[in-house]
Structure formats: C-alpha cells, structure tokens
Amino acid sequence: MISKFLRKFYLHLVIWTILLLLPFITYLYQPDKIADFKIYSALSHLSNIVFLASNFYLHCYVVAPKYFFGHRKIFILFIALGFVAYVLLNYAIVYFNPNGELAHFKKENILFVRLVVGPGIIYSLCMITSSMIFLYNEQARQKELNKQIALEKTTAELTILKLQISPHFLFNTLNNIRWLIRKQSPDSEGTIVKLSEMLRYILYEVDGPKVELFKEIDHMRNFIALQTLRLPIAGEVDLQIESSVKNRMIPPLLFIHFVENAFKYGVDSKNSPYIQFQFIDIPGGLVFKSVNKILQYTEHQPNEGIGLTNVKRRLQLLYPNRHELTIKRTADDYFEVALRLMTDED
C-alpha cells in the first residue's frame, strides 16, 4: 500500500521537498551565513508550506470533485476563504516576528505587498496547479467510466434482447396473433403493428447512449399490450404517466426489466392479476414505479437475478449519486419497485 502511494505521488513529494528546502540552499554556497540562521524564519516557512500543501490536496481531492461542476459559487467561496486564511497566517507570522518585521514593512510602505500581493500570487499558483491536476484526473476517470458504460450497456442490451426477443416470447405472441386472425378480430392488425414497432425499436433505435423518454414509454406500451394478450384471466394492467412528465433523454431499456418481471411473477392461470406502472414528475428528474400482486412463487425472490444486477450496475455508472432504487415485497404479497432518477444536469 505504501509503495503504491509513493509511486503515485513521488513527484509531489519531490516538489514539496524542494519547496521546503529552497530557502536553505543558499547556505550551501555561503556557509558563513549559517550563523544568521533564525529558527523563527524556518518555522514560518514550514507553516507556509504545510498550509499550501494542505489546501492544495484539500482543493484537488475534496472541494473540486464535489463543487467544481455543479456548485461553482461554493467552489469560489472555498477558494476565497482559503486565501483569507493564508493572508491571516502571513499577518500572524509578520506580527509575531521578534525581529520587528511589521514595523519595517510599514515604514517601507510594502505591508500590503507582503501580506496580500505576495501571498495572493503564491496561493493562486497553488490553486491553479491543483485545479489542473483535478481536471486531468477527472478527464482520465471520465474516459475509463465511458469505457465501462459502453461495456455495461452492451451487456445489458444483450441480456434484455434475450429476455424480449427470445423464441418463447415470439412464439407466444405469434400464436396470439394467429388466434386473433382466426377469430377475425379487429385487433389482429394492431397487434402485428405493435410487435413490429417493438422489434424495430430494439433493433434500430437503442444504438445511442440515450433515447427520448416518450419513445421508451411507447416501447413499454407495446410490450404491455403484447403481454396482456397472453393473460389467461382478465385483470388490471395499467400504465399511468403524469401529464407534467417531461420528454427527457434517458438511457435506453432502463425500465423494461421491471416491466418484464411484473408479468413474469404477477400472472398465473387461477387469479386475476394486478399490475401497475407509473411515471411521476419530480423537480430535476422522474420516478418510475412498478407494483404487482405476486402470483408466481419461486425459490428465488423476484428482485434477484442477472437482469437486476445489470440494471443496478448501469445506474451506478450512468447516474452516480443521482438515483435511488427501492425494491420491496409487502406483507400482503405485493412486489413494489421505485426508481428515482435525477436526469437534469446541474
């Protein structure tokens, strides 16, 4: 662990060591001045270096990651407070100097330069360097994150395609369509159109990183309509969308796993199903809810499996600290999912 830390920060250690020893290099060329060495000056220099180093890393690894992109005013406030603290530190060093530096600077009319201008230049260089290192690290992190997102998206899409375009799903859907045609049902043509639109969406419209929310909702409508055809007993299957829900851009195929699971565990041949989906508008985002009466019981809980693992992983990559997924089974055997997404960028 220590060797890994040293490999990462060895250049930092070298630079701070040089800055710490810089005032004392002159003694190598003028050893006679060692007699003029003052411990107070050395301690003052050390306190400056410790303060700058502390602010440098606090800014680079705490303040900038938290506030640089989303809360610029707070970010600037932290920098301003650090500068004020640095000025006060230098004032304390000058004020308590036993050699009377304060009176000397006042007499020479350079107190403002010594306490504000000089520290301002040094502090600004420190903060600029810290910000550049943060931005460089952030760019490298973002590249790696994009690679992971692309990989996870491909994995998730393949898993979802297996769930939705499986031979079993197509066989049952086509059988239902054949049954409608034999009955000369007016719904047969619409059902074929829904299946066609669903397949077209999955095969051709989910290549990009994001799609329009309403396209995703239309895809869900088609999926629900096709699944409803297969219900052995009529029941309540409902998709509710608040009128205030905005047409945001979201990652494709993010909700369909929960829809598929609701039908998988909420339908049997003896009971009337209850399945409900909701899209609710909230400031800066939306909430998706899925509720179904559990009618199919298996050894595994409905909220387990590869599909859910993929969804959780995608959410961690796509909405870090901007999502909340709640999954629970109620005492009266209802399965509830609530996914809160903060889709709007700060």
UniProtKB/TrEMBL annotation:
<keyword id="KW-1133">Transmembrane helix</keyword>
<feature type="transmembrane region" description="Helical">
    <location>
        <begin position="116"/>
        <end position="137"/>
    </location>
</feature>
<dbReference type="InterPro" id="IPR050640">
    <property type="entry name" value="Bact_2-comp_sensor_kinase"/>
</dbReference>
<feature type="transmembrane region" description="Helical">
    <location>
        <begin position="9"/>
        <end position="30"/>
    </location>
</feature>
<dbReference type="Pfam" id="PF06580">
    <property type="entry name" value="His_kinase"/>
</dbReference>
<feature type="domain" description="Signal transduction histidine kinase internal region">
    <location>
        <begin position="156"/>
        <end position="231"/>
    </location>
</feature>
<protein>
    <recommendedName>
        <fullName>Signal transduction histidine kinase internal region domain-containing protein</fullName>
    </recommendedName>
</protein>
<feature type="transmembrane region" description="Helical">
    <location>
        <begin position="74"/>
        <end position="96"/>
    </location>
</feature>
<dbReference type="GO" id="GO:0000155">
    <property type="term" value="F:phosphorelay sensor kinase activity"/>
</dbReference>
<keyword id="KW-0812">Transmembrane</keyword>
<dbReference type="InterPro" id="IPR010559">
    <property type="entry name" value="Sig_transdc_His_kin_internal"/>
</dbReference>
<dbReference type="GO" id="GO:0016020">
    <property type="term" value="C:membrane"/>
</dbReference>
<keyword id="KW-0472">Membrane</keyword>
<feature type="transmembrane region" description="Helical">
    <location>
        <begin position="42"/>
        <end position="62"/>
    </location>
</feature>
